[in-house]
Amino acid sequence: MTETEEASNIAESAGIVETQYYRYNPLPGTFLMENGLSLPFIDVAYETYGVLNPLKDNAILITHAFSGDAHAAGYHENDKKPGWWDNMIGPGKAFDTNRFFIICSNVVGGCQGTTGPCSVNPETGEPYGLSFPLVTIRDMVEVQHSLVLSLGIEKLHSVAGGSMGGMQVLQWMASYPDMVKSAIPIATAAKHSSQQIAFNEVGRQAIMSDPNWNNGQYYHGASPAVGLALARMVGHITYMSDQSMETKFGRKQKSEKNPLKFAANFEIEGYLHYRGTSFVKRFDANAYLYISKAMDLFDLAGDEPLHKVFRGACMKVLVISFKSDWLYPSYQALDIVRACKLAGLATSYVEIDAKYGHDSFLVETEKESQLISHFLNKVE
């Protein structure tokens, strides 16, 4: 890429951005988790794009998916690649930074700047590891709520996110309906199915079976890189679709083959190995365990009918699913739509005919952008 092309890409994005930090310490001493345990404080990594208007009523909270982070758009200094949803956030894009003030934070339990199991416990001077309390989607939203209030924002124009981000959107709708004018849950569910839990458990077992995991105490030695890479390989398969794999790889084999009997000579095998090893460089194995478990534990309504969770709310809702998404199939989106309508919410639903499976909400975004732009224009 030439310097001119790079400058053009930056100009078309949210620009050069910096990660900011907020310390959540609501009471002297503790942040109380949903399970009753506590932390001394939580440091939150977040980024903002666009300008908050004088009335502070143009803010949109973006919630990230499982392996995402606060860097949703724009470029960090000297970066070659933009944030994970840069094709959706920026001037004239779906989340238009000419109009809106966009916020995205890394979730509690993560490993990209927000307090999680790899953070140092101030009481011991060592990383928390497995002494870190289990986190829930509700805990993630409670921390986001505090961050939003700290910015002087009392009402959000919208909350939007896909996959685990969509779960956070649903929790915002249930926990803080008076703070949310509109909500956009994408490719998500109000609770995991047994199949979704099963895939996550395979990933967790891959990590915990790695000899270097050492019961979560690996921070002063070798990390469980093999187990984490395997977990990511399994996960990445679920993010794609049969059609997208066939189109991109088929049964193509590498031009230079490894003579070993069980070498990864198919291109799809090499791709999965690349995905696994690159993931290890940026993600913490314990964070994988904690965040995947939070998704599995998420059950917005529990024993109650789902529509009762939303009763009394008055926000507008846009629910989006993708036809080729077999990890979060459209029937789960329809469950959300029915509940919203039964609760009396003004709800729109679209199933997009996209070919990239669950990853469609990240990569196949033209129709998604049109829908979201139109929806946000109708929110008053």
Number of domains: 2
β-sheet strand percentage? 15-25%
CATH superfamily of the largest domain: Alpha/Beta hydrolase fold, catalytic domain
The whole-angstrom Rg is: 21 Å
Textual characterization of the structure:
The protein is α/β, with parallel strands linked by helices. The protein folds into two domains: 3-192 and 299-378, Alpha/Beta hydrolase fold, catalytic domain (Rossmann fold); 197-293, Rna Polymerase Sigma Factor, Chain: A, CATH 1.10.1740.110. 36% of the residues lie in helices and 16% in strands. The chain has twelve helices and 14 strands. The strands form four sheets. Strands 1-4-8-5-11-12-13-14 form an eight-stranded mixed sheet, with helices on both faces. Strand 9 and strand 10 (126-127) form a beta hairpin. Helix 5 (225-239) crosses helix 7. The longest helix has 15 residues, at 194-208. The chain is globular and about 65 Å long.
